[in-house]
Specification:
- By secondary structure, the protein is mostly beta strands.
- The chain has two domains: 135 residues, Immunoglobulin-like (Sandwich), CATH 2.60.40.680; 63 residues.
- It is 0% helix and 51% strand.
- The strands form six sheets. Strands 8-11-6-4-14 form a five-stranded mixed beta sheet, with no helix packed on it.
- The radius of gyration is 20 Å and the shape is globular.
- The N terminus is likely disordered.
């Protein structure tokens, strides 16, 4: 992000690909963005796992930013059961279990569904993952070799400026001055920029849908007064 006297410039980078694997199973919560008052689904990934039959974990959240009544988890991988419930006023417990007598698959297992409060402040808020003491996995591993330690990779929720996928393309949002017209531009290398179009700020945010986002291995965005 750079600031000068003539314009305010924000940048987003979208990289399509997966995170590198570690030497032990890794459970990761994706980083994503949401506008105040809107809902979002954060992907839950399992990587570098070979024999986990099930696991459970908790993540912490700020009740002033995340609406606890909207928290839920849904399975996305075949043969996986997912459920969740509040463990405390600021913690949500998630259970993921294989239902087909096979290990949990590597990849996206589930999505955490949540919404940001309408008065949530702009910026990043942590969603720290934590083990449930004494219960790193549910049941036993499929090879009966005992409990497997799982590394937890925490996620961040970006409130305000955000990027997310919709049925019609990539949804970009920036903090903005209501009623001001903004020019959206995109680049694949931060050197050459193409204009996407303009839109007016509304409720301190401005939005754009990029229907071509999946045509690029990486995509950068910026917005400024035209």
């Amino acid at each position: 992000m750079s600031i000068n006297r003539r314009s305010l410039l924000f940048l987003f980078a979208l990289f399509i690909g997966s995170a590198p694997l570690k030497s032990q199973p890794v459970l990761a919560l994706d980083t994503d963005g949401v506008a105040q008052g809107n809902a979002i689904s954060l992907p839950v990934w399992l990587m570098n796992s070979t024999n986990l039959a099930g696991l459970q974990f908790e993540f912490g959240f700020d009740p002033q930013i995340v609406n606890s009544y909207d928290l839920a988890v849904t399975a996305t991988a075949a043969g996986t059961f997912a459920d969740g419930a509040l463990a405390a006023s600021n913690r949500f417990r998630v259970v993921l279990v294989s239902t087909n007598r096979l290990p949990l698959t590597n990849g996206m297992l589930a999505k955490l569904n949540l919404s940001a409060s309408s008065d949530a402040p702009n910026g990043r808020t942590g969603l720290p993952l934590r083990r449930i003491p004494g219960q790193p996995v549910l049941g036993a591993t499929t090879n009966a070799q005992g409990v497997t330690e799982v590394a937890l990779r925490n996620g961040q929720l970006l409130v305000g400026d955000a990027f997310g996928f919709t049925e019609t393309g990539g949804r970009i949002q920036f903090r903005a001055v209501s009623g001001t017209n903004y020019l959206f531009q995109a680049s694949s290398n931060l050197l050459s920029w193409s204009s996407l179009g303009t839109n007016f700020g509304l409720s301190n945010l401005v939005f754009w849908i990029d229907a071509d986002v999946t045509n690029f291995p990486q995509r950068f965005y910026r917005v400024a007064p035209p």
